[in-house]
Amino acid sequence: MSSVFEYAPAPESRSIVTIAPSYGLFIDGAFVDGTGESFTTVNPATEEVLSEVSAASDADVDRAVAAARRAFTRVWGPMRPADRGKYLFRIARLLQERAREFAVLESLDNGKPIRESRDVDVPLAAAHFFYYAGWADKLEHVGLGTAPRPLGVAGQVIPWNFPLLMLAWKVAPALAAGNTVVLKPAETTPLTALLFAEVCQQADLPAGVVNIVTGAGDTGRAVVEHGDVDKVAFTGSTEVGKSIARAVAGTSKKLTLELGGKAANIVFDDAPIDQAVEGIVQGIFFNQGHVCCAGSRLLVQESIHDEVIASLQRRIGTLRVGDPLDKNTDVGAINSAEQLARIRELSDIGEAEGAQRWQPACELPAKGYWFPPTVFTDVSPAHRIARDEVFGPVLSVLTFRTPDEAVAKANNTTYGLSAGIWSEKGSRILQIANQLRAGVVWANTFNKFDPTSPFGGYKQSGYGREGGRHGLAAYLTGADSK
Amino acid sequence: MTHVLDPDALPGATPTVHAPLPPYDDVTRSDAAFRSFLHGLPGVDQVGAEARAAQLGTRSIKTTSKAWAIDTAISMVDLTTLEGADTPGKVRSLAAKAKQPDPSDPTTPRVAAVCVYGDLAGVAKDALEGTGIHVAAVATAFPSGRASRAVKIADVRDAVENGADEIDMVIDRGAFLTGRYLDVYEEIVAVKEACSRTDGGAPAHLKVILETGELKTLDNVRRASWIAMLAGGDFIKTSTGKVTPAATLPVGLVMLEAVRDFRIATGRQIGFKPAGGIKTTKDAVKHLVMINETVGADWLDPDWFRFGASSLLNDLLQQRQKLRTGHYSGPDHVTVD
Amino acid sequence: MIGNDRLAVRKTYKLYLNGAFPRSESGRTYEVTDAKGHFRGNVAWASRKDARDAVVAARGAFAKWSGATAYNRGQVLYRVAEVMEGRHVQFCDEVAHAEGLSTSKARAAVDAAIDRWVWYAGWTDKLAAVLGGSNPVAGPYFDFSTPEPSGVVAVLAPQQSSLLGLVSVLAPVLATGNTAVVVTSRERPIPAVTLAEVLATSDVPGGVVNLLTGNAEELGPWLAEHADVDGIDLTGAPAGRAMEFEREAAGTIKRVVRPPATEPDWTADPGLTRMTPFLETKTVWHPMGV
């Protein structure tokens, strides 16, 4: 938009982070070499190899689960609940102390803008530990009877879109409830989990309470299917979620799934338009749209369609796409070549199906994985870009005429994770929120998260909740638990 | 309509009400029509607006961009003194500072204007003769605006006659808050008329101060902005500087959205002036960023954007010295006004 | 039933589907005997198409039932207890025959079944307070969570406990606002058919409960795989088939209640265990500003 006021590069310094040339697994309190074939993790913004990481074989996973079991029965389970809480408080503080380091590393490994890793991912991760730390000695008030018990060893598999934050969502409640964990970070983003292992060491967390096994799908499968795992928690694609649900069928493992989404963001004609436009932008371009709850379907009332689209395009024109470490970057790199290919494929299909593609004039770096912010108009509910989760910075715009039609279109999906409503009319908001089949409804805001606030989906977006008192129930059993 | 506090202010049965620019030329046809127009503007969600303003405030402006931003900001300052204790000497001293903000560096740009009370506009005019620096005068019973319309108009005429190039008026917040929007509108129209010169010279530019700290809600800020723009104001300005809070970023954001939308609809560009509370270079840069990303480069010009400030200038100068010399400056290295 | 000197009028045992009592579309019936092997009747043998129709009926009834006020749902469930009470003798007789119980044990089971409706009737308007609440997020937002029903729930009812077991798995599904497709005990379906008659006359809207007499082994896979079923209770799944049904349910991420190793003591206090599996938590955020 502007040519007279260019922002000079404002890169966050990398020097705060030391990345080792190679990493092992974190098992029983120590870093050990894995026996699987190691793999590299790259900076998606530059394709530079950041480090070589061990892949955990079945035998390594076995060792990790055994360590977790030992820690559960000998140390963490019998520990005074208040002391478990203190360890978690320590971890929360350590994350705050080393926040900048985590933020830089997250942006390097994931490709997300430093503004987001610094202002969202890392502070929220610390907040989750702080929140659940306080629960550790109050479990009798969770609502599962007077003597709820931990489940044992939790196997946790997390995605690449919010590597540290998803770790916090998984590890904090599990530990607060008295479980021990074996966590597998995503193959493309293992580094902050490994730095977290260092934090566990600094906190003097007893060996085996947290074990981190890096690797790809096979490692994840070994964790999920391990016979001595009592609880499985997974965040990722619906497809993998289904295979996990199949794998644990017939066992006594408790399962929570946080899967995909195709959220409707509904804008009524009485919306606060400028904030709605911000919310649309925040809804779909936050974290490059690599967000399961992204507002990827804009449902705009027909009477204001042109006005909203014009405002939206003007606003998207100000988004700064580029170096994730630049403090002024709004949209960073796509996390992997594979994901970029999928975004391209679905976008091409959208165009082929007759939707209109719009992208702002924006220069993309020559190296790395990049996709510009994209808006498809003239999208019909039958188009694949209106149904499939793109998991990228791609917005599909549909219209509606009446509140009933908005709700019908919003609910016309197999997903049910989140939704947005924009209107200045309170009674309408409450009614629409009531009718939407989605686990999180943001009214006049979008993509807000908090450790006290339960998060999770309806329908094929998964089951179980993370956050709040509800998030603990997934890691406890009591007279009243399922 | 008659002015409630001053029934005699507008003689004659039918006051002349100038119609706003198309497509809004019929919205002031009645109190009811004007009210429904203003209340039909999109609402402002306070939390969302504050979040957006805060996000813009996190932009990191460094090196060459910072140097550009500092010089641009200096050139946009309405260097202001609005004290009961103001004297011709104080005004001349301020004018000297406006001409040469940093005696140690003649490459420092001049400010845009000197802003004073109307009775001292002549002093400022003489002191700034030939510099191109404008004289702005506050009028209309500034800062409260609590006087009869006749008095306010006389105040404006006096300032214009004293040589003010720009008039900074205050709206009637009492009328606004009781819903008499057409009164507010008509008064601005009347002041605008009073900005014309008897000698046929270019009329004084009119800046309309909303005093957003008294309007309280961002919905009110948006409505008041539209009243001022429809009534022919050349600039909309946040505050008198005498009420806190004054020029906050969320208020600025909403006013910028208003001037943006007004130009899209009518083709007429309106300027924006935040005033009061902007004391640091950091504050000023945040405003420039907000302009850049809300309305764009067309407004990054002293003709369309001003800072109403006094202490801001010295901070800009110290930061400028720091960029030039590479070390931090101190208050004794800039001049006391 | 042969009574004194009068020839009794026997009942045709049919399905309960969308508020009506049709025969199976397949035309099939199967013979049901009492615990001693005496003929009790030919009962409708539900087919997969009946199950399909039942899901359509349950889906159709969902909006109204889940949208009813909690107070209203509570009154409807209490009404079920009231109407059951009037058929106490009949239920005792049927349960005694079906399960081979003594009169006193049958009565205890019927009493407990009726009381269970009363217990769940009282839950409808407490769940939101117990399972929901407002969340003190770190920002200017009002944020609250409420429990909401998952949708259409398929229930494979217990095979042993023909009435108390059935009520114990059905009532929580209804109390939480879900609608149900129930496959009754295969061997002991007659109390379920009578319960259907109670439901049909107790203000429970048609389609909210659909009772299919027949074989869980046959219908289980269809319900487990059905894309418009949101949850499945496998309590009455035939031995050895539950894992397979759970796998099939995974294909659409259904909420699953696994079967216990053996049929539990249905008189025990169930707590929330049978309600929470078919409840979603919805969290709503809204800014607070002026």
TrEMBL record, chain B:
One of its GO terms (cellular component) is cytoplasm. It comes from the Bacteria. SMART domains: DeoC (SM01133). Its EC number is 4.1.2.4. Belongs to the DeoC/FbaB aldolase family. DeoC type 2 subfamily. PANTHER family: DEOXYRIBOSE-PHOSPHATE ALDOLASE. This is Deoxyribose-phosphate aldolase. It comes from Blastococcus saxobsidens. The gene is deoC.
